[in-house]
Specification:
Blueprint lengths: L11 E9 L2 E8 L8 E9 L2 H8 L12 E9 L11 E4 L9 H4 L14 E2 L6 E4 L1 H6 L2 E2 L6 H4 L2 H14 L6 E5 L3 H13 L4 E5 L3 H9 L4 E3 L3 H10 L5 E6 L4 H10 E9 L14 H4 L4 E4 L5 H12 L9 E6 L3 H9 L5 E5 L2 H4 L2
Parallel strand pairs: 9-10, 9-12, 10-11, 12-13, 13-14, 15-16
Antiparallel strand pairs: 1-2, 3-4, 3-7, 3-16, 4-5, 5-8, 6-7
Helix pairs in contact: 5-6, 5-11
Amino acid sequence: MASPVSPPDSEFHNVVACLGGERTALERRAIPAPAADEMLLKLRVVGFCGTDLFKLTTDSVTEGTVLGHEIVGEVVRLGDAVGGFRAGDRVAVPHHVSCGTCRLCRSGNETMCDTFRENLMEPGGFADHVLIKSRATAQAAQKVPDGISDEAAVFLEPAACVLRGITRSGLADGGSAAILGGGSMGLLHLLVIKAAMPNVSVMLIDPVPERREIASSLGADATVEPGTDAVAAASSLAAGHGVDAVFDTVGGAALLKSALALCRQGGTVVLFAHAPDGQPADFDLNDLFKFEKRVIGSYSGALAEQSAVFDLIRNGALNPTPLVTHTMPLDDFEHGFRLAKNRQALKVLFTPSRRAAAP
């Protein structure tokens, strides 16, 4: 009996698969084929997100899952019904798109739409090839123009998440803001605020001197350690009042108290980070009631923010590339993960596996 014929190696690629807990492995899988309204991208670069870190460290993903969603890829195959793109185009695309018609979408809460939560990437961004499903192909994919680097374009999705929180906070140009945390997302808040509203005064609060120095180099008007001095600095920055908006990029009940102390009467605290599961908030409700403060959550970015952020990147107002501290192939995923977990990196980017990159 003749031996079965194996598919050619060109039909397979490498992916980073979750194995449970923090364990991952590079696996060989079949490359997905696009349907008529889908596109297949060859990975150019994918960002490691705080959500990826959270899912791995909390063991909250199913075994076999491929994480990753901040991608720039090159079109290698298009479905027959896809227009506006051609092979060789560089594309940045987010993984969520809302339905646009449900009550939540019509109310401006697109990121709460059930349809929005569907992952429109197969198998996920940590793969040599990524299939982009129809809704993302038709509505969210952005062709990256010449002159915009992959390292800048890959921030489309996370920067859109940041912009939505900024917009929902009510912050206006000429106002003042404080950012809790000088990691990659805290610094991205700084850059997006300064790009969208150049006249906002921004203070960044972080215990690590090196991160405060980076914030200053990126345009922060003030930096300070956490503690009582931060309240005085916020008052000084905002002409004797607290700041208009506080963005918590760290998470947890203790920081919520700090954020409320920094915020002026009538101001807004934006929660932009996971707290431990089941952790209750613990603060004096009169801090909200008597002083008409607001606490809001901001989960993700919708099409409007994605488009607005890409315009900021395209016109040069937003350059997030200084946040990239490490770039490595998917083969070294474990190393990149450890760097992020141990706070030895700001933004880690992964490129295709060595096997895919080989001539």
